[in-house]
Amino acid sequence: MKPKPHIVDLPVYKPGKPIEEVKKEYGLEKVIKLASNENPYGSSPSAKAAIMAELDNLYLYPDGSAVDLTAALASHLGVKSENIIFGCGSDEIIALIARAFLMPGDETIMADQTFSVYKSNADIEGAVSIEVPLLNGTHDLAAMLAAVSDKTKVIWICNPNNPTGTFVPEPELRSFLDAVPGQVMVVLDEAYFEYATDLSYPDGIKLLDRYPNLVVLRTFSKIYGLAALRIGYGIGNPGIIRLINQVREPFNTSRIAQAAALASLGDQEYVQECRKLNAGGRLQLQAEFQRLGLIHFPSQGNFIMVDVRVPASEIFESLLRKGVIVRAGHRLYPTWIRVTVGSREQNKAFIAALEAALMEQGVRV
Ligand SMILES: *Cc1c(COP(=O)(O)O)cnc(C)c1O
User: Fold this and answer.
1) Is 32 helix (H, G, I), strand (E, B) or coil?
2) Which of 211, 219, 216 is nearest to 301 (CA)?
3) Which of 105, 108, 118, 263 has the highest Cβ tally under 10 A?
4) What residues form DSSP beta bridges with 305?
């Protein structure tokens, strides 16, 4: 058989290690996973109730265009239903944008250390990824702008950036959008929007009227705690949303996911509570890193990237043996790990394990 030549050697996405696997492999009873930016407090109780109520309807196909959920979200965000498209996670929206807009030989611009799904989908479409180095862990918008050519189709801005947690402030983002040619799409990935507390952090949705080439991505996987159900969305001008819809499978989100998302959307008190707890957890971890003399990037997300000063793989392994899963393997940051902000107790356990791991590696703290 002859596959498309450019898909043969694509790298496989490496997810955070699952808790059960680590328990078995290391003979541990208790394992804390701070590797995939999941919500340590779970999902809203109203999501569970909505799922239970949906269990009698499993034989029915979902509403392919998620009419009720779309209307509720549109009203919540202050946009129209035709501005919204749902996906099997916002991962799927990224794939659909690539599928609808990127052709072999097209160029697409992203940071050199950012969410890997942009590049993997560009690769699948045979597009050329131009990876622009981060500047102090932050998107270098001037350099990204300078990389635009007449072949550029899509620019990806992850805000806050995964894995560094840094963000592009509103004035810089506006100047950038003012300068990007109108035929180039800018995708603003706001998977961690609800966690950002800095006053200069921009709300991409407020920019949509002024910049018709902008698409904003958000998700129910992070602060809403519904990662298992795979539901995320894109918001953009109706013309772009319609084009992305052209390549969407008819039933790409499940009844269960739609019901849980709708119920979760109605529980904004829960979102606010998680946002507050996360901001506290960020401060807790940052204070501990400072105490340990470790440099970290300032984060607006529910994760922090920190320099452990020895090969990150060593600390990663040592933390695993102590029952804490984090993320390492950042190509350009070989001594940095990314840790999800957990509950107060989880953060404490992580710091204790990190201190011990650093000691084992001979890092003086
Ligand atoms: C987690 C994440 C997503 C998407 O997650 P889904 O579960 O597919 O909605 C998108 N972008 C970034 C930067 C993320 O970290």
Assistant:
1) strand
2) 219
3) 108
4) 338
156 — phi, psi (to 5°)? -105, 120
Q: Please, what is the Cα angle at 197 between 292 and 76, to 5 degrees?
A: 145
Model confidence at 308: pLDDT above 90: yes
Residue 120, SS3?
helix
Measure the CA–CA gap between 290 and 319, rounded to whole angstroms. Answer: 19
Spatial separation of the C-alpha atoms in residues 63 and 254, rounded to whole Å: 8
Rounded to 5°, angle at Cα 220 from 100 and 167: 80
- Give the mean pLDDT of 153-175: 98
pLDDT value at position 91?
98
Q: Is the whole-model pTM more than 0.85?
A: yes
> Could you identify the residue written with the tokens 């401060």?
283
Mean pLDDT of the chain: 97
Tracing tokens 């018709």 back to the chain, one arrives at 212
Tell me which residue has its CA closest to atom 1 in ligand 1: 191
Q: 89 CA to middle of ligand 1, Å?
A: 7
Quick check: 170 and 140 in contact, CB under 8 A?
Answer: no
Pocket test for ligand 1, best of 38, 219, 229, 235 (most atoms within 8 A of CB): 219
For residue 88, give the ligand 1 atom closest to its CA: 8
| Ligand 1 atom with the shortest distance to the CA of 115 | 13
Who lines ligand 1 at CB under 6 A? 37, 89-91, 115, 158, 162, 189, 191, 219, 221-222, 227, 232
> What one-character-per-residue DSSP string does 188-235 give?
EE-TTGGG---TT---GGGGTTT-TTEEEEEESSSTT--GGG--EEEE
Query: Whose CA is closest to atom 14 on ligand 1?
Result: 191
- Tell how far the Cα of 358 is from the centroid of ligand 1, in angstroms: 30
Per the listing, tokens 């309807």 go with 57
Name which residue sits closest to atom 11 of ligand 1, judged by CA: 191
Give pLDDT, residue 257.
98
* C-alpha–C-alpha distance, residues 323 and 36, integer Å: 15
Closest ligand 1 atom to the C-alpha of 221? 7
Going by C-alpha positions, the residue among 140, 186, 142, 181 that lies closest to residue 161 is 140
Distance 233 CA to ligand 1 centre (A): 10
